[in-house]
Amino acid sequence: MRASRQALVLVSAAAVSTALLTGCGSKKADGSSDAAAGPAAAAATAGVSPSGTPTADAPATASPSPGTSTSPGPSASPSATAGKSAKPSPTASASTAKPGTTKPADPAAKATSAPPAAQAAPAPAAVAAAPAPTAKPGPVAPPPPPAPATPHVPPLQSGCTPTKPQPDEPKEAVAAALGSAAGQSRTLFLSNGGTDRLPALPVNLVKAIAWQESGWQSGILACDGGIGTMQIMPATVSWMNSKFGTTSDPKTLAGNVQLGTQLLDWLVAYYGDSSFGGTYDLSPDPATGRTPLLDLVIAAYNAGAGNVHYNTVTDPVTGATGGSVAVPNPGYVANVKALMAGAPWNKAG
What we know:
Blueprint: H1 2-24, H2 38-46, H3 107-113, H4 171-182, E1 187-189, E2 195-197, H5 203-214, H6 234-244, H7 253-275, H8 292-303, E3 309-314, E4 321-326, H9 330-342
Antiparallel strand pairs: 1-2, 3-4
């Protein structure tokens, strides 16, 4: 009986030992247990050995190769399904990676494997562009035609005796023609196909130019080819008629005065746009009393626009922009401005 109890106790002890050994894990030949191998197995599954070296099972993107940017980019952004599942995406599989090497991701594969939500949206349909608004250009005309080698010399200041191919019109008729032409607001046709509306000219400017040029003699012809009251040069006739869409005849009083005032209009627009930001104001500057645009127009009427310039200078300290008039005929400019102020035609008999 005692022997039976001892056998029963031995059998029970063996059963308990077996259960404990099963729960704690079996030992290997080197004395380590299966439980101690758990971290290494987990590290191998993650693709990294306990020492931190990538294994053959590591995903291609687990360790950046030299020259590969580690900054977050398109390949580092989470996929559309990353928040829903802990499984690696198809592009992260390392089944094709070679042992001991890291293979950069194929951009083409990424582009094709992106979920539909990440694909580029189709380009919107082309929309017809609205017509661009017509803006006033800078200079209203191309560079002026070549200027004569020497300024036009009015017949009254010339050493050559002018001729009179036709009789002079009465001074009253000349005054009326000059006043009418000066008061017109003309349309200038630009070389780019646009137009520019020009303001009326100061009457005293037109009358002073005519007095300086011919003394209001409508039938005079200068030795250098200047015709009539405004001393229109032959080359100016077709030029002005094309710019303003007219057919004026310089040998008639009305046509001659029309061509002369058109040339003044063109000069105001040319210098106003190219040097004064589109301002056509010929009046004196309130601060300085100077009249740079007026001076340019008067000088160029006599010497040609190619010989008359406005040089701009920017103050490096204040940033203010100023300029100076460069003219070859300052005496002519001074005479015309004196005539504008004195108006001798009002005293002439």
